[in-house]
What we know:
This protein is α+β, with helices and mostly antiparallel strands. Helices cover 43% and strands 15% of the residues. Strands 1, 2, 3, 4, 5, 6 and 7 form a 7-stranded mixed sheet that branches. Iron/sulfur cluster (SF4) is lined by residues 146, 149-150, 193-194, 199, 201, 204, 206-207, 210, 212-213, 218.
Amino acid sequence: MTFKEIDQTRKRLIEWYRRHHRRLPxxxxxxxxxxxxxxxxxxxxxxxxxxxxxxxFLQHFPDVKKLANSNLQRILKAWEGLGYYARAxxxxxxxxxxxxxxxxxxxxxxxxxxxxxxxxxxxASAVLSIAFNQPYAVVDGNVKRVLSRLYEISxxxxxxxxxKIFKEVADGxxxxxxxxxxxxxxxxxxxxxxxxxKPDCNGCPVHSRCRANQAGHVDQxxxxxxxPKTPLHNITVGVVYKNNHxxxxxxxxxxxxxxxxxxxxxxxxxxxxxxxxxxxxxxxEVNLNVTVDGHIAQVKHAYTHFKIIMEVFSCRYVxxxxxxxxxVDFRWITLGxxxxxxxxxxxHKFIHLLD
Length: 355
Ligand code: SF4
């Protein structure tokens, strides 16, 4: 594209955005804290899912100070069900640094932001451009798809090394006078018009500048590499009852589902029955001897890199004192207390069946 064509493309995108963008709660503010919260939530999660979480989160934690001074369990509880819990843990860590080292004022510098836990290239670019109007181009899945079609970029969008290429292209197209508006326009175009399937090229404000559209190749972009099939794990967990209380354990703070509470259990071995695996896993993980009283549910759940089928059993405490091997904490709780604790989504699929 010539300089004039690039300039026209920017103007058309921004004009289209001004007219057609969705009214979303985080677009009603220029508060960097709120924009940060929304952008973190929107990573890996759809807009409609995020809206109620965003509103609830800001009721509990309306500013950096409130977030920094809250305990992690409260934050994880507000995040419960949104997944990718490292995001919540990192926000808590970042809020503490902002409060302690920047007097609670949200940083407006690239170098400072990138030092904070969980703030990568995307979040820093989004917050700085949208809240502070600084010229940083954002690259997310929507942007990559639009750019791959606009410029017929053959680099697969799901290959991590291609990020740099898309970033350079996005940077070249960025409207430096209105970076926040421009970034949002490109992302919104991807979400509403240049969709993965059946993009609405006739309604697209930049169709005359789009190489894939002009060449009739839209269905060939974006390119993707084939990923290996997601593995399936067979899991068993036990709800161990003792005197009308049940045992829950807390996962270690880092890693998958870090800091959340769950029921003890683990992988079912080859040639092992789910019941036997349940008794063995509970002995190994919490040192209790139990018997299996009944089957509560079979739960299927998909994580990003694997899927699980989980057999859930009702177990009766027989003997032993809890000694933790893996989990970092435990509680004997009544069913009425269960809402105080944040659990993974897979556990919520059977918690409502407990009595
Ligand atoms: Fe996407 Fe079609 Fe617009 Fe090209 S013309 S950017 S393929 S919606």
